Structure formats: structure tokens, C-alpha cells
Amino acid sequence: MRKRQFFATITLCALLVAGLILYMLTLKEGDDSAGQVFPVVINEVMTSNKGSVSDGMGNFPDWVEFYNPTDKPVDMGGYGLSDSLLEGAKYVFPSGAVVEPDGYLVVYCAGEALSDYHADFKLNDTEELTLLDQRGQVVTSLQLQAVESGMSLARDSAALDAMSPLKVLGRGYSIARNENGTLIASVKDAAPGERLELRLSDGSLACRVEERKCL
Q: For the chain, which terminus, N or C, has the lower number of CB atoms within 10 Å?
């Protein structure tokens, strides 16, 4: 009887010690992660995209741009995005969502999940946009505010003017799109005979490509 009690006591002590060691290791890992600063930032947001930036599918939804200022790639798989802390993550970054060094990643807040990078909620200029980690903890946030249609909120006010599509048009540039609404970023994106729309600061022009000339 005493031997059974002895072995039972030894077994119980061993389990308690093992549990304590496991708890301390878990606690240490949590402390390490808590002390790290997530490098990716909310770089730019457009809450009223009226024909300014296409999602590549012919739509012009709200969008959020993330930026990685470091020299190492950052994996955002499993992180969440939301406009309401009470509701938690409304969009979860897919596996393989990596932001390259000095690179960008855009999520379109279209109100429906058209692709892995389309969130099924839209932005409102009175809400707070929040990036959450896999545990649901806030990594960073940005208070949205009302801006002119076609303008975006950037991390600093100087970038706001420099990066706004309307400001770019006002400096004498134009934005070209094909009949599907796809942005023409290179002469290789348009074929002879194709119809294009050129958007200027005060309107738009319907054009047809006669010839391609590469620099």
C-alpha cells in the first residue's frame, strides 16, 4: 500500500514539474513575441475610390496598402484586418501573403471576397482600420477620416498630396485604361486598334491606339 502511494506521489510530482516547465517555456515565448514590433505598416488607404485605382478586375473598390520598410520579407498569413474591434477580424490574410523587403501589398475592401485579396467589407470614413495578429491582438491601427473622392489617406501629409491620383492628374499627367477598366501601365499593355480612355484632371478622352512606340 505504501509503495503504491509512493509511486503515485512520484508520478504526480513529475507531472507537476513537467507542467511547470512547459508553462515557463510558453510564457517566455509569449514575452519574446510581445517585445517585438511588427514591421509592416498601414501605408495608404482610399475610402472613396471613384474610378481612380482598379483592382485589376474592372472594379474600383476601397483599398488598403501595406508597406514593409525592412530588408527582410514579412509573412502576413493569418493576420486579420477589421474596421470594428468588437467584431474581430473581418478579413484574414491567406497563407503565402508575404510582403517583400521595401515592398507593398494591397487589400481591396470590395464588400465581397472576389479573390484572396478582396475583403468582404467596405470602408467607412468614420471607422478605425485595425490590423490584428493571429491571436486577435492589435498590431497597428489608423483612424479613417473624410477625404475628397479619389484622394487617399497616407502615413504623412506630404505623401498624401504626392500620391493622390487627382494631384498627379493636376500636374499634367493622365491615367489610361482599356475598355475593361484595366490600368495601362506600359505600351505593351495596349494593342494597335484597341480603344482606351485617358482620364485628365478636368475630364476624359476616348482614344484608339494607332501605333506602339517603345522607349
A: C
How many CA atoms within 13 Å lie on the side-chain side of 197? 12
Read off the pTM. 0.56
DSSP conformation class of 167: H
* Neighbouring-strand partners of residue 71: none
Burial of 18 (0-12, 13-18, 19+ CB in 10 A): exposed
User: What's the chain's Rg over C-alpha atoms?
Assistant: 25
Q: Are 98 and 87 in contact (CB under 8 A)?
A: no
Cα of 160 vs its chain's centroid, Å: 17
Q: In what order do the strands lie in the sheet with 195-200?
A: 175-178, 195-200, 203-208
Query: CB neighbours (10 Å) of residue 104?
Result: 13
pLDDT tens digits in sequence order for the chain, 215 residues long = 555 555 555 555 555 555 545 444 343 333 334 445 788 888 888 888 777 788 888 888 889 999 998 999 999 999 999 988 788 899 999 999 999 999 999 999 988 888 999 999 998 878 888 899 998 888 888 888 777 766 776 665 444 444 455 555 555 667 788 887 777 878 888 889 999 888 776 677 888 999 888 76
